[in-house]
Amino acid sequence: MAVYFDHRLDTDRSGINVDTQWFDGSPILAVNTYSDDTGGSVNLFLDEGEKLLNVTLTRTCQATSMAWHPTKKILAVGWDNGELLVWNEHDHELHESLPLHKTSITVLGWSSSGTRLSSGDKSGVLMVWKADTKGRLQQNPLHQHHIQEPLKIMLYRPVPPPDPNNDIAQLARAAVSGDESALDMFNWKRGKNNARGGASFGTQEALTFFVGGATGGVYYVNDAGQCSQIFNADGPVMTLLHYDEKNLLITVTENMLLTQHFITPEGEAREVMKVKMSGRGEQPTIVWAGSGILATALGEGVVRMWDLEHEDNYILTLEGHSSYDHNESITCISYCPEKGTLAGGTNMGNVALWKYSPPLGGKVVDGELKWKLQAPATVEGPIKQIRWGSNKHLLAVNTIANVFMLNEQVMSAGFKEQTAVVQYGPSSLSIEMFSNMAHHDLKTDIQVKGIFTTKDALAVWNGRRVITYEYSTDKSSIKAAGTFTTETMNVCLYEQNVYCIEAMKVQVRTHQGTVKQTINFSELEGQPVSIDVCGTYLVIGTNIGLVRVYDLSRREAKPHSQPRNLGEIIPGFGSIISCKCNCSGTRVSVLIKSTHGHIDPKMYFWDTEVDQVSYFNFESGRGEQDDFPPEQIEGVEGDTNDAERGKTQAAKDIAGRYPMTHYWDAHDPKLIVCEARILIDAFNKKEKEEKKIVSLSKTMDDGPVEVMIVSLFSTPENGILIQDSFPLPDQFQTLLGIEVPYHYFVKKSENTGDEDDGQGDGPRPESSSPRMVARRTMRDFVGLENSDKNTKDAMLNFSYYLTIGNMDEAFKSIKLIKSESVWENMAKMCVKSRRLDVASVCLGNMGHARGARALREAMKEPELDAKVAVLAMQLGLKEDAERLLKNCKRYDLLNEFYQSVGEWKKALETAEMYDRIHLRTTYYNFAKHLEMKGDYSEAIPNYEKSDTHRFEVPRMLFDEPEALEHYISMHKDKALHKWWAQYMESTGDMETALQYYENAQDYLSLVRVYCYCGQMDKAAEICNNTGDRAACYHLGRQYENQDQIKEAIHFFTRAQAYFNAIRLCKEHGMEDQLMNLALMGRPEDMIEAARYYEQKPGAQDKAVMLYHKAGNFSKALDLSFRARQFGALQLISGELDERADPELLKRCGDFFMENGQYDKAVDLLAIGKKYWEALKICMDQTVEINEDLAEKLTPSKDDPGIDTMERVKILEAIAEVCMHQGEYHLATKKFTQAGNKIKAMKALLKSGDTEKICFFANVSRQKEIYIMAANYLQSLDWRKDPEIMKNIIGFYTKGRALDSLAGFYDACAQVEIDEYQDYDKALRALGEAYKCLTKAKMNDEMLLEERLAQLKNKIALIKKFVTARRAFEENPEEGIKQCQILLEEPDLESGVRIGDVYGIMIEYYARRDRWKAAHAAIEEMKSRIPNVNIGYYVNMRTVEAVYRALDIPMGDLSRGKMNGVMDEEDGEIVEEEVDNIYGHDEV
Hints:
Structural class: alpha+beta
Number of strands: 63
Largest sheet: 5 strands, antiparallel
Strand content: 15-25%
Radius of gyration: 56 Å
């Protein structure tokens, strides 16, 4: 709660106060005053209302405008005579400009940095002046414009946001790292003409502004001083505002027309919106009240708000606070963005304050719900102007006759020993004495800024003066005890001593101010900032974290322990906010501020006996002993017992907060209570992670509780544990203190007159409440407020031991207490601690049998909270039960709970949203509830929603026939109409019955009634028109009874009662209709008709067809055989399946065999599972096996009559037949299904499908199959297809057939020699063959050795040939010699063709023109190779040249001229493609 201190300013009492203006920096207020006697003056005032006496701003005329410099204490004042004065408060200098204005100066404005001052007058003259650092203006203005209308308002355009590319810090880092562009930006070099280049740094100055005129013109002046009209408003311009986020100019005229214009960088305006604002006032005020929110005061009792961002509008009223009159109107408004507070002055002297408080978690609410009306501040006289300003956010209030300066001060309050003092005005105190329930109001001589009270005395101070008071012994009166002057902001009392914090010391004084003792602090120890007394102990904390504790029980304060410097051990320590000690002086609690300026969420505890510091973390809700990272807590949480889960849940209840205040109990040294506020950042983070804090103390739908009261037990043995927590009730402002068994609270100002504090969560109120302070009983002591000290101590000990989990000591502490209310309180404690085992004992001692039984039955529920909720219900803790059920999401139980307590609206909402499975049940129960109350009109729609109205509403209204008939007639429900018709029929009212049967479309009942009335024609008409089967059947029976057989058959047929129609046809010989009726009927009807035709000669064909249609194939076939109906036999046999009789299938099969229809016979035998007989027919009669037949012949794996081996044999037999018929693919499939992959591969090889062979080999992964595939591929033209060669090599390698692979490489080498004469490739292929053969394993070792020797010899011969061929390039003679040696090799032909050796020799001789040697080589070759084709080894042109040179006829040699010539291009392609194959090194 805030109190506003008001200072009346010393203005001219004979004049009027025209205007006020705040300086943006330190608090200085300029007040414009005018008097007919003394003229006009402008006075300056400081924050305490002190008037600056040396200001000389006076003239005989009135000051018409004022404007403060944006950063310096320089004030520009425009006067009615056109004068322009500038006052420099810092230098106390007055500067006057040239008198260029001839009329009243109406507008003034400074640029954002204060280098320009713009002034405009009533005649439309606008000037822009240049100002120096002291505010002195140049003699002549920079720019001057003449606008053809009086100027009313000026608005400087805001500074554009800084360019991120010109961020000085980033550029500096980039420049240091060597970024050239960053270096250029810093202007290290000058360009031509010594001009600087690059970008400018720092904040840019806004030099452009807008001006509004009295006839509606809006003008824009750019930074070059050029003025232009950008648009014309419809009326005199009253207000100009700039919407920075969207770069919009908001213009409001005097006739309340608002326009929005988008402003381009060049200053051009583009209209976005134009709207007429509602309301009209004499002097309306329009201001920004947040981002995009316009607030308007029109002299009404409301403030009109318009959210431009969300296009929403709403009003703020004065309702909700008793301090306002219903006729009060708001005349002016002002908004403080730093405080988020909108202030409105009223015509009755009240300053209305609305605090912007949107709901946490981003919950969407109406606009007016985001603002909370605060207690008003009051001044004398109607308020005409109100302004927030200065860096202290002060409020100036102008009532024309007076100006007040309001300073917000946090309300002071104090509590000690059942005495509470609360400030409710600047000098007004409310004193509540709970020992005898006395109440006093005290008016002090100072504006109070601090309070401290004991049971005997009171001290108040304002920072300069301290006043003490004493209470009389019977508390009936208060008298002043003393007063003294000292600069202190914190004071404590103990007996007759006053402890004052002063500069670097604490003075111990008497009530009259006499110093009795001084406690000094050195510079290293810091300045004392916090002081408190509890019991007989004084604790002092300094700004650097030093804490001292003194014992006051002696004559002087003596140190109780060694001082402790918390700043040295607490990480991120900033300063101490407050420190307090317990009644025994053993524990000191400390709140600190971090180095970042935020309140630390941890509250620290210093144990003075063992000199140890621990903490309780309100952010996690755990003490230091349990404050582990979340992942560790989540890891073990599932394995804990109910007690540990209760502790964990209690921690979650208060997590995400920070402590604001803390108070120790005056008598118990371990109990401390704190006020904790939510951490917005922590809550928003959890919201994003979608992990809402589940709390016992708040409803899930209402968002987080903003402030919670948390009680802690602090002991050295067990650390710091949560004793209790509950939300701060709405009617209370703040926690004031604790003294068992009560919490003490300051009430909100709007609730100070209430006597009933409500029954909120947590503590319960006392019946008699003081005016400003309320005390509420602690949860554990409800009903024990007046008990003796022993009982209170026992309950406190029980609560403590229950908290630490020591149940033996807990029960021991209360074993002597026999009060039932004590046990009830302990049971209620168990709801908070979730200790159901303890609750069972408590219920037993209470004699609460029903509760014990309910708790026992609830143990079957899986959720702990659901069990605890049952306990809460039995103890009457309805709110706790509700929250627990919401927390565990047991909406079914929550629905039942709401129903049981009569909260039907909540029950229906819960069922609608979360428990839809019980929605109809909930509506039904609500309807029963309303019926019991006699509220039939409301019960009916709920019965309808529960879908039970067809029975329940007639039952409910049965005693009111007229109401019931009216209800039924108003509803179109057919069931209701039918019920009413039946009721009317029972009463004999057939006409009404027929009418309602017709409305219900109950044609059976209509026909029944008509038949009863003898109106058969109408009954027949209804049946023919509607075709209702039940009605037709009934009518058919009626006609049958009357022997009208044709009509009966007709209506039985329409009713699809074919059995009855067939029966009548048989009985009356109507065979012409019998067949058609049988075919339309059910199988049973067909069989019945078939039996009739079977007995009738010559009608067996109809019987066969009907048996067939009815699905009785065996009977149909049997009858077909007997009647020799072969056509029907063939038709029926085609529809037989495995479900048919095997004997019947065999009989049909034999029939088809006799008639030569072997394929049909096989098909039937396959269906009958006569697989071998079917296969024999396929083999003998060459019945082609296709895919379908093969599947029919394949036994199922699940067939119990055929084992696995038999199934394999059948599959192999099918495959053999397929092989015989050339169906190789099908054979492969069946061999594969039989598991015989070798035979499957053989079948596939016969198909010649190379692609499938390769695929099958790769899938099968068997050595034999790899080898078979490779052997098959060798039979193809692998020489021209490199892919085949690769597959051959791969398959031999995978099959480990290295001897075969070696043979393939050998064959490849021979192909290279024979077809391409490429001995190099052949040599590589033979090398691969040799490698493979050396690694091969053969049964015949001798054969392996022989093959290796042959390969080795072949490789040696080829190497020699290759060497000889290469020798021709360097030493031809050596080459000839090696060739001749090679020709002498006995088995040369095994590796090298002799013709190739002679060929290179002949070619060489021919190139050297040794024709005779060439001829001799030719002849020798002819002799060694009979019938040789020379052209195969030697180019025929060479041979012709040899013979031509020797003039020898060629004779037979010419025939081989073209032999052996090959396509070199094709060979080259193959050579390129297979070149890398012989390098294949896999084995």
